[in-house]
Amino acid sequence: MAPRIARPTHRNGVSRAPLLHLHLSYAVTRRGLPAAVSFRRWIETALRVAGRGENVELSVRIVGAREGRLLNRRYRGRDYATNVLSFPVELPAGVDLPLLGDIVLCAPVLAGEASAQGKRLAAHCAHLSIHGVLHLLGYDHRKRNDAARMEALEVAALAAVGIEDPYRPR
């Protein structure tokens, strides 16, 4: 069963998106990459699908292979650039801020994967942005049941923005 998309509302019942404070930076040339408005749309949709309707703040940094490899090696012990890294915020006890964390997308890895999989780069960026947001919210895919739940949320969020299921065989 597909997850139900939570739609936050104002007191008057009008549907609205969660208030998102998005910090987006391109550490590579933006040519061919989606604009900030697209990332905002995908991230807001992921938040709604996951039922996170309150104010949130997060950062997305789009990097090249060198920085992607450095971060993956430093924080995951893997010496290669990967498509997405998520760094959930770890706030001290008693500190209540709307910070979710940081997402790092590696542009050349995403472009290579999109090409190899016959996908549009924007669709792949949407998928990995949503994937990263779900990690920031505490979802993971280490166990089969957790992976199935996370994939269902990804598919629902992607469908909501008009992108087909990336897990369906072509």
Structure, explained:
The chain has a 4-stranded mixed sheet with strand order 1-2-4-3. Helix 1 (36-49) links the parallel strand 1 (20-26) and strand 2 (56-63). The chain is 41% helix and 16% strand. By secondary structure, it is an alpha/beta fold. It has 5 helices and 4 strands. Residues 1-12 have low confidence and may be disordered.
Topology:
Layout: E1 20-26, H1 36-49, E2 56-63, H2 65-76, E3 84-88, E4 99-106, H3 107-116, H4 121-136, H5 144-160
Parallel strand pairs: 1-2, 2-4
Antiparallel strand pairs: 3-4
Helix pairs in contact: 1-4, 1-5, 3-4, 4-5
* Strand order across the largest sheet: 1-2-4-3
How much of the sequence is in beta strands? 15-25%
Order of helices and strands: EHEHEEHHH
Give the C-alpha Rg: 16 Å
What attributes characterize this protein structure?
disordered N terminus, 4-stranded mixed sheet, single chain, 5 helices, 170 residues, Collagenase (Catalytic Domain), alpha/beta
